[in-house]
Amino acid sequence: MSLPAQPEGGQGSLWFPEPPSKPARLLPPLVLAYIGDAVYEVAVRQRVIARPNLRPHHLHRQATKFASAKAQARLLALIEPQLTEPEQDVVRQGRNAKSGTVPKNANVLDYRHATAFECLVGYLYYSGAHDRLRTLISQGFELLERDHD
Question: What DSSP line would sit under 27-46, residue for residue?
Fold first, then answer.
């Protein structure tokens, strides 16, 4: 019996004991975006819950400022200068991935960039680069809020 694959980089562990079937660098971009969407959603929810107003409708309104395709595309544009070459490759692959779906509340360009951002988040999560992931998301949130004001 073989041991399950461990996250690359050894910088952290997954939240749950089920590692991906392949190393992060070998997963298809849309698979990385799939897990990246969920990981990013947790970051957004923690961000809005850390604020004083906890009414459900308010939480949802605040979360959409970070989690919409337009917001994710903008966040990616703001953090892109900080990305390493391998991270830029992941973003490029995510941006070029064909999902086969048409966004209903976003233009195609924002949707592609949002998918690229989610792909990056998934890649960093599965690579075990959790500190890097937290840093980029936190900086992105700060830049996005400054940009939004």
Answer: S-HHHHHHHHHHHHHHHHHH
Q: Rounded to two decimals, what is the model's pTM?
A: 0.89
Superfamily of domain 25-148: Ribonuclease III domain (1.10.1520.10)
Query: What are the pLDDT digits (tens) for 10-35?
Result: 445 789 989 999 999 999 999 999 99
d(CA 5, CA 16): 13
Q: In the annotation, is 149 catalytic? A: no
35: tokens are: 């897990």
Give the Cβ contact number of residue 112 at 10 Å: 20
Q: Which of 37, 89, 131, 147 is catalytic?
A: 37
